[in-house]
Amino acid sequence: MELFVLGLSHKTAPIDLRERLAVPEKDLPRALDALGEVSELAERMLVTTCNRAEVYGVAEESLEESVAAVTGCLARYHRLEPSDFAHALYTYRSAEAARHVFRVACSLDSMVIGEPQILGQVKAAYSVARAQEATGIVLTNLLEQAFHVAKRVRTETGIATAPVSISSVAVDLARKIFGDLAGRSVLILGAGEMAELALRHLVEDGVRSILVANRSYDRAVALAKQFQGRAVTYDDFRREIVEADIVISSTSAPHVILKREDMQVIIQERRHRPIFLIDIANPRDIDAGCNEVDNVYLYNIDDLQSVVAANLKERQREAERAETIIEREVGVFQSWLRGLDVVPTIVSLRTRVEEIRAAELDRTLARLPELSPEQREAITSMTAAMVNKILHQPMTELRRRAVHQDGHLYSTVLRRLFGLEEKEI
Amino acid sequence: MQAGAEGARATMGLDHLFFYLALLGYLVGTLHYLLYVWSPRLRVGRMATAAILVGFGAHTLSHILRIVAFKRPPLGSPYESLSFFAWAVVLIYLAVELRYQNRIMGAFVLPIVVLAGTAAAALPSRLAGLSPTVQGIGLWVHMALAIFGNAAFAVTFCAGVMYLIQERQLKSRQLGRIHFRLPSLELLDDVGVKSILIGFPLLTLTLISGTLWAEYARGSFLTLRPREVWSVVSWVIYAGLLYARVSAGWRGRKAAVLAILGFGLVLFTFIGLKVMKAGLLV
Predict the structure, then answer these.
(1) Does A307 reach chain B within 8 Å, measured CB to CB?
(2) Is-contact A41 A58, C-beta < 8 A?
(3) Closest alpha carbon to A2 in A353, A334, A296
(4) Does B281 score more than 50 pLDDT?
(5) Which of A183, A245, B73, B156 sees the fewest Cβ atoms within 10 Å?
């Protein structure tokens, strides 16, 4: 029995190849059934997202044969030739495989490190496989531990703390200024696509009061309607800024529409309530000097982008801490896996008892030189028979237990009782 | 003096034992709060709060033992005043943590507690033979008000420091790890206002009770001793801060700077002047 991962991802395959090997969620059961026909597979599950297609499996006998059979099966299922994608495939076995699964679940193998979707996708894939009864003790344990590791990494490292998209950075900054965004108001200057995207994020976060100002009043009305906001005339926007908490500006004006002097007056009228100005226009709408006014926080598109870049770096640093956690967890899984495999236990138990038998036999026979060869033979076979009889029951039981959940427990206890540990490792 | 010796026998040193236990709890808690800023794990955060709660319990017990033994509030010596100050800061901090469900502030407030506690531990705990005129309910009330007021201002001070850090991060657009850990400007500003709204009335009452007591004990209304003058100066700063907030909506960075300045003056009034006086006497 050997755990393996076979698959391809954004690191090895271009998007068109990944697309051809993707399995939509509704087809997952059928694909798992197809894999089930590979007789060498004891357990199986399939994870496919837009960034990866991977089979997690447990090979009954030879790993190479299983991998070849699974590759063939995937090719048949997707109506491809194995040679179409074989070059992009990677294979991991045992501890390597566990490490890979943990890294995937923790989003360390993702295109955007720390993105939260992948864990949900792995969970969904696992529950489909479970419903199909395609998973057994190894995958169950592996995945349960992977979810545990993912949770640990999420809480113990900042891998998912720093936002890494322009609009989520903007929302996060707004939260650091205003705390709760519920009940805050936002003013949109220029009803562009970017503004709409940022607005959508803000609304999801509880911003309720929305004002839209646009050169073309009709577009302002249309966007306002979409978000249950209110359209205002463009010429009045300076007056509206007095009331707004967040301003998203993306007009196509060729020059600055909000000067530092304007802002100084506005902030007085606002009674110094903080204001967050987001300038995503090109050329810029808002005078950079506005940021120097107290309680005004101005970010333009470059600022937001550099925050994104810095946050990505921060995630990279946090990812290194996550790798340490994963390394420890792989160790835990590995020792569980080793305990699961009863064969080494059986071998070392037999060797140990055999050693004792041989040593005791030698000592006894040395003290009885008068015995005839037949008598010596009889004593020798008697000891061998005793050892076999005594070992028979525990060995059978151990083999029987190996396939059950508590197999590793029996194995571990046996190792402890007979002191087999130090010889094995 | 004699009463002090009797009291010390009555507590059998238990008050000190509990005081040191409290200090240990505060120290463990502070280290956990700092660790929590570095890596905000729930377990670390809970450990921090638990350690502070244990410390606070032991500290309270220590005060009670001394109150029972000496039959007066635990404000009779610099040791007791500092220890009581540390206790009051912890009390207010715990209320803040409960109210805002945020532990990051602990990393800023608790070091002050540990500092005050350690300073108290370094001072002799024996009563410096209080003269009979000095004692009396009026004085105790005056001191308790002053210490609680100062404790509130200590929290204002920390909120101000945190505000300035977060504001700097947001203005400079260089977002470090501390940016993600620190709460929002809004929250920090809110803690700042609320703690002043507690501290300022206490400071006002302190000044009033102090004046009344001076009149009663010394027969003169205003003696214009440095301590009184500087207390009035800090009162003016906090009053100005509150006035500017209410009338002109003053907030944010300027308010935070003034709050920090105000606490600096408070420290100077209560500790700096003593040190200077001691220096002059030598």
Answers:
(1) yes
(2) yes
(3) A334
(4) no
(5) A183
